[in-house]
Specification:
The complex is a heterodimer of chains A (153) and B (723). Chain A has helices spanning 22-29, 80-91, 101-114, 120-126, 137-152, and strands at 2-7, 10-15, 48-51, 54-57, 70-72. With 153 residues, chain A is of the alpha+beta class. Chain A is globular. Chain B folds into 3 domains: 7-206, Aldehyde oxidase/xanthine dehydrogenase, molybdopterin binding domain (Aldehyde Oxidoreductase, domain 4, 2-Layer Sandwich), CATH 3.30.365.10; 220-285 and 347-426, 2-Layer Sandwich (Aldehyde Oxidoreductase, domain 4), CATH 3.30.365; 306-339 and 437-722, Aldehyde oxidase/xanthine dehydrogenase, molybdopterin binding domain (Aldehyde Oxidoreductase, domain 4, 2-Layer Sandwich), CATH 3.30.365. In chain B, strands 11-12-9-19-16-17-18 form a 7-stranded mixed beta sheet, sandwiched between helices. Chain B has a 5-stranded mixed beta sheet with strand order 2-1-3-4-5. The radius of gyration of chain B is 28 Å and the shape is globular. Classes of the chains: A alpha+beta (153), B alpha+beta (723). The interface between A and B is large, with 57 and 66 residues.
Chain lengths: 153, 723
């Protein structure tokens, strides 16, 4: 079946079976592989994208529910907050294996969108759903703080 | 410094076109230089310098997050005096000779050896390239080479200056020196610097870093395998009638080795759905059918009569009579569960047909095994198998697989697909959690005899664990006396002076496939040793740090290093006599790590507030990468000891995915302070050594706070929970 999706500001037509998770439409059909598969049960956050600006697990978003919304993936995360978050990630050398980091970054952008000056506890609470097997959490939290400060300045 | 690139130099570089200077090993294994434009070159380079001045370091190890792309690049850039921002990386092709891990004699990554084995090799390659460029510039400028200085990728002599690329054309006509001069530590600018950023930073923050699962090739189909629910089961027959109802399903086939049925789909999702719809009849006659409790009991039975003596000097049987005379004994028994590695990128591999054979796209940890094993599965010559190494979304040992399991599965799937189109094999998370190759389950029993003064007079130590090395390509690691050193390493290699230290080992037998898991045997032996040391300290009323220092003979090189690490962590943690925090230290992968754990316990709920870690790993090539590995290693240990376990019921794995194999979460990660001992010793491993001491440091802290000694992992078994 054909679906019209709006991804990173562009209209894209895809052929997919109803019930296909948006994650696999992005990765296999549209070759937007920056969004990662980690668990398939919305428990690790590696597949996080933005739907109308809100961090959303693409592994649990069916393609038929992804029409008529704005989808942003890591490839399209280019606004001011996104840039500040990515720059902070590099400054703090957050990444290790990197597989979870697109999802971490999409969640962090969501956090700073909603709450430009999060406390340490607010960061930990918000980022709870994004698992990192390399355990880069200390640096993730430092980078979010740094991005917040840079955006404030 | 203002750099003016001369117009003449620029034109020359441009005219040189795509010619690049290569420096690496030739077929004789000797450092040599060459040109990328040569019709044939027998060089597989470590360094490539393009006419535009770009330096590419060819990385012989894979990058699973441990920082090797940054580390090996640092070694070359240091000796080359390159501009760090103009150095990029590329992964080496499979080449067992020139890209061998010098500690293994074969191409592969493991045992926390990447920097250690490459330290001189990559520096010499960088130094040789620098030397050639200097001689090329001397010729071009007609000056004496000794007048030339190199800084940040720019060569200068008097009024002349130019970037590396300007001298590539001449440099490719010169011979490399076989043994170039390398810098002395006082000359290091990049090695030891805190200012370098990781080389994989950009791609991993904008979604462009390429992992194997990200490979999309024209015409590619997707493969997902239904494996036996009990380890060792084989396919009798299958029914795919329900799979035929799945949109995008292509076909299903039994794998040639009968270990599973592969479902092919037009995309990953279709293949997942189709696989789940398969109905398979299994033969479990050779399968593991025991449950966890039985397996634990069976390990303990093995402790009664160890098969092997792991201490050559002290037969285990000689220890018991001595301990019988002891004024006091400490008796303890420990058990450890199977653990999944759970790299966040589930196992996957692409096999692509080439003119001559196949190309394997993988975050490949052991090309030296993958190449021949994929070749064997496809009845090809290894030379017909090309390994394309991509970033690996974690490994923790999972990808360092003696049977190249998922590579071979992908090859088998490709074989039964008809070998016409690329095949991407994908594991779901459920496949990963249930799929085996775990850290082996193990049991330890110790009886420590103390004399009237509280001194250790004998130590009877027994372990039962399935051997990782036996029965595969790593069989050569097994010692003549039958001991697989990875089963007992943290006990048998203990740095402590322990009199009458007998170590018995029995191999547990099971069809459950096992594998190295970050820190391997040290993941259980370190916990046992450091818990026991804490028990001895408590029993004899000694400060746990003072007691350990007294048991380390400073005339031993590694003991001296450990003493430094322990003293450093004592200093940064402000440890005091009677301290109620937990302490542990452990030597593994040639590195010494000491940890102080500060925790809060409310009834049975534990929060780790802060970890202090000190590490002696020789020259700190990238201090920030070392800190990151200590942070990650510590967190990896916490995840395991808090609650991770793979259990079996009638041979079937009980856990299925992250909801019941839950990784450490953001808010659970303690504050962490890592201090690195200043050292000019040769660099040693950092990827694994942070894991072993962290776990017992927390366990010892729990004892200090609650009086409960945790001997069965995970700690949820003792009724604790963690926040």
């Amino acid at each position: 079946m054909q679906y019209q999706l709006t991804i990173n500001g562009e209209s894209r037509t895809v052929d997919a079976e109803p019930g296909t998770p948006l994650l696999w439409v992005l990765r296999d059909e549209l070759k937007l592989t920056g969004t990662k598969f980690g668990c398939g049960v919305a428990y690790c956050g590696a597949c996080t994208v933005h739907v109308d600006g809100y961090p959303t697990r693409s592994c649990q978003t069916f393609v038929e529910d992804a029409v008529d919304v704005q989808i942003t993936t890591i490839e399209g995360a280019t606004d001011k907050i996104a840039q500040a978050v990515q720059a902070a990630w590099r400054e703090k050398d957050v990444v290790q294996c990197g597989w979870c980091q697109s999802g971490q970054i999409m969640s962090a952008i969501g956090l700073l969108n909603e709450n430009p000056k999060p406390t340490d506890q607010e960061i930990k609470d918000y980022m709870h759903g994004n698992a990192c097997r390399c355990v880069t959490y200390v640096r993730i939290n430092e980078a979010i703080k740094l991005a917040s400060e840079k955006l404030e300045a | 410094m203002t750099i003016t690139v001369s117009r003449r130099g620029f034109l020359k570089a441009t005219a040189a076109g795509t010619t690049a200077l290569l420096v690496g090993l030739n077929t004789k294994g000797v450092l040599a230089a060459g040109s990328s434009a040569a019709a044939t070159t027998d060089l597989n380079p470590f360094v490539k310098i393009d006419a535009d001045g770009t330096v590419t370091v060819i990385i012989k190890h894979f990058e699973m997050g441990q920082g090797t792309t940054t580390g090996l690049t640092t070694l070359v850039a240091e000796e080359l005096d390159a501009d760090w921002d103009r150095v990029q990386i590329d992964f080496a092709p499979s080449d067992n000779n020139r890209y061998a891990n010098l500690f293994f004699g074969a191409q592969g990554t493991g045992g926390s050896t990447s920097i250690a084995n490459s330290f001189m090799q990559y520096r010499e390659a960088g130094a040789a390239a620098r030397d050639i460029l200097v001689r090329a510039a001397a010729r071009q400028w007609d000056v004496d080479a000794s007048t030339i200085t190199v800084e940040n990728g720019i060569l200068t002599s008097g009024g002349n200056s130019g970037h590396f690329g300007e001298f590539v054309a001449i440099a490719t006509t010169l011979e490399a020196v076989e043994k170039p001069m390398v810098k002395t530590p006082d000359q290091f600018k990049l090695i030891g610097s805190n200012k370098l950023h990781r080389k994989d930073n950009s791609g991993k923050t904008n979604g462009t870093a390429m992992f194997a699962m990200d490979v999309n090739l024209p015409g590619m189909i997707y493969a997902v395998i239904m494996r036996s629910p009990k380890f060792g089961g084989t396919v009798v027959s299958f029914d795919d009638s329900a799979a035929k109802e799945v949109g995008g399903f292509i076909a299903a086939q039994t794998l040639p080795n009968k270990a599973g049925v592969v479902a092919f789909g037009k995309n990953t999702w279709a293949a997942f759905q189709a696989r789940d719809a398969l109905s398979v009849e299994w033969d479990f006659s050779q399968a593991e059918t025991r449950s966890t409790d039985t397996m634990i009991a069976d390990h303990k039975v093995l402790l009664d009569a160890p098969e092997f003596d792991a201490n050559h000097e002290v037969p285990l049987a000689s220890v018991a009579p001595l301990i019988a005379e002891a004024a006091k004994t400490i008796d303890a028994e420990f058990t450890f569960p199977f653990l999944a590695h759970a790299p966040l990128e589930p196992e996957n591999c692409v096999i692509e047909p080439t003119e001559n054979g196949v190309r394997v796209h993988d975050g490949c940890q052991f090309p030296t095994l993958t190449q021949p094993m994929v070749a064997a599965a496809l009845d090809l010559d290894p030379s017909q198998v090309e390994v394309k190494t991509l970033y690996a979304g974690g490994s923790f040992g999972r990808r360092a697989n003696a049977s190249s399991d998922y590579n071979v599965e992908a090859a088998m799937a490709y074989a039964v697909s008809g070998r016409k189109v690329p095949v991407k094999l994908v594991w779901s998370r459920e496949d990963d959690i249930k799929g085996g190759y775990y850290r082996p389950m193990s049991a330890h029993r110790a009886k420590i005899g103390l004399d009237a003064n509280g001194k250790i007079m004998g130590w009877d130590h027994r372990a039962a664990v399935k051997s990782i090395a036996k029965g595969g390509p790593f069989e050569g690691m097994v010692q003549k006396n039958g001991v697989d050193p990875t089963s007992v390493e943290g006990v048998s290699e203990s740095l402590y002076s322990i009199p009458n230290f007998g170590i018995g080992l029995s191999d547990f037998k099971t069809a459950v496939p096992i594998n190295w898991w970050r820190s391997v045997g040290h993941s259980h032996t370190g916990f046992v040793m450091e818990s026991l040391m804490d028990m001895v300290a408590k029993e004899t009323g000694q400060d746990p740090i003072e007691m350990r220092l007294a048991m380390l003979d400073p005339s031993g090189a590694n003991q001296a290093r450990m003493i430094e690490a322990i003293k450093l962590v004592r200093e940064i943690s402000g440890w005091k006599e009677g301290d109620q925090r937990g302490f542990a230290s452990h030597y593994s992968f040639n590195t010494c790590v000491a940890v102080v754990a500060d925790i809060t316990v409310e009834e049975t709920t534990v929060h780790v507030n802060k970890l202090f870690m000190a590490v002696e790993c020789g020259v700190a090539v990238n201090p920030d990468v070392i800190r990151a590995q200590m942070e990650g290693g510590a967190g990896f240990a916490l995840s395991a000891i808090f609650r991770n376990e793979i259990t079996l019921t009638d041979g079937e794995v009980d856990q299925y995915n992250f909801p019941d194999y839950e990784l450490l979460r953001n808010q659970e990660m303690p504050e962490i302070e890592v201090a690195i001992v200043q050292s000019n010793n040769a660099p040693t491993g950092v990827g694994e050594p942070g894991v072993p001491p962290t776990a017992p440091a927390v366990a010892n802290a729990i004892f200090a706070k609650t009086g409960t000694r945790i001997m069965d992992l995970p700690m949820t078994r003792a009724g604790f929970d963690f926040v």
